[in-house]
Amino acid sequence: MSTVHCNTVQTSSGGAVTLTKQKAAKHFVFYDGQDESTIKNSFNTSSVTDVGVGDYRPFLTNAMSTTFSVLHIETYRTSRTTGTGSGTSMVSTTAYEMDITNSAGTTFTDSEVGASLLGDLA
To answer: What is the pLDDT of residues 12-39, one digit of tens each?
Structure first.
């Protein structure tokens, strides 16, 4: 087996390479659920809308190829209770809606919410 060590991988003409067979996250967002206008970190995210208590709708900058994508959600901080996404669905190829629930199934607003989306871009 060979080992390749390098600092930069480029095409033969010096441009960015096209990675095949890779399935990296196509979107992530980390935001303040109590003030959804405060996006702390993101990739391919244009905004987040507060739809109701513990109910958020992130919008993507670039569309996914389908509404059947894999979504991962985590919450942090509120009484050190970890929440999960419940009733989560893609409402279009550029937005999804998620309800944040605790282990008892109650929706709640958390101060730190993170989500990532896997799939293919359009």
So the answer is: 898 888 766 677 889 999 988 777 668 9
Q: pLDDT for 34-72, tens place per residue?
A: 776 689 999 999 999 988 888 889 999 999 998 888 888
**97 CA to centre of own chain:** 11
Pairing of strands 45-52, 95-101: unpaired
**pTM of the predicted structure, to 2 decimals:** 0.74
Rounded to whole angstroms, the Cα distance separating 45 from 26 reads 10
Q: 18-49 as b/e, with b when 16 or more CB fall inside 10 Å?
A: eeeeeeeebbbbbbbbeebeebeebebbebbe
Residues 49 and 35: beta-carbon distance below 8 Å: no
